[in-house]
Amino acid sequence: MPVLIKLRQIAFRLSRSDILFWTLPLLMVLLVIGTIAQKELGIYAAQKAYFDSFITFIGPVPFPGAATLLIVLFVNMLMKFLLFSEWQMNKAGVILTHFGVLVLLAGGFTTALTTREAYMVIEEGQTTNRIEDYYQRVLQINKDGKTVLSIPHQDLKQGLKIENVDIPFKLMIDTYCFNCNIERRNSDLEGWKNAGQFMQLVPARTLPKNEENLTGIAFTISGTSEDGRYVTFDKFPKPPVFNIGAHEYKIEITRQPRELPFSLKLEKFSLATHPGSDTAKAYRSEVRVIDGQEEWKYAIEMNEPMRYKGYTLYQSSFDLSGNKAFTVLNVVENSGRLFPYIASAIMAAGLVLHMLIAGFGKRRTS
């Protein structure tokens, strides 16, 4: 039984209090550094670098990320719970409370690794299940309105050649910048088409607020009747379009699209303003939720989000500049959303049970 003895030794070592003693200060140091870094890197980049990572760097020094520290903390508390709990009926309340703490910690870890934010823009009367990521950009090639090739911005770089069986042309990226400044083109005028004849993309310093960065590329295309050099960038209103045969191809930089497991139809958007001004006081989106054969109405208002299938949809913004109203919903996907509620219920039940057992024990003694 040497293996079992070794495993038992490892389990008892993992339950030692000195692990907690060293892990908590490291977690506090990481919290302080990550919070300070938000001013320079922005909330999203700092979150990814320090809190969602398993290992990070403080200068040239490697340092465990929050994900690693939370795993160590959870394993330590789990081993302590399993090996040193007094498994007796009169300690049932304490055991249940400690179990609730473990569930809460597991929920925090799940939330840190799985939470994703996106937004949904719906025109009044429109039905859609499409959402776009707030932070992740992609180079997207569409054929007749359908995506045939999508490349994450992390894979884009100067000199990258793009060939694919789904597209009848070749691309080469001449310039890539995660954040670009748009400047007037005064030189290197040869071969440019579309807006590239008048503007150029110049790499700029990454902005702290990730969503404010303007990602773009300059590229050369061959294999079409309109070969040449083009530019496109995030939210460019007129991205390059090529007609090849009976098909239309569009090349654009956009936020990474995803699909919800249900659809929303915006039936009515309402806006209330403060008297004597155009400042919004409250706004409300009356939507129809469509999930397979099931449909129902729901009103999404400020501070009154809709929660369904692990998604929370908040009323974020709106656009009334055109003939029809548009609503903008913030969409948060959080697989660990229910953990705090479950953990709180378990801990509350444990504390109540502990008080009942203690009170019953005192009455028996008296």
UniProtKB/TrEMBL annotation:
It is a multi-pass membrane protein. Residues 256-330 form the ResB-like domain. Keywords: Cytochrome c-type biogenesis, Membrane, Transmembrane, Transmembrane helix. The chain crosses the membrane at residues 20-37, 57-83, 95-113, 338-360. GO terms for cellular component: membrane. It is found in: Membrane. It comes from the Bacteria. One of its GO terms (biological process) is cytochrome complex assembly. This is ResB-like domain-containing protein. It comes from Micavibrio aeruginosavorus.
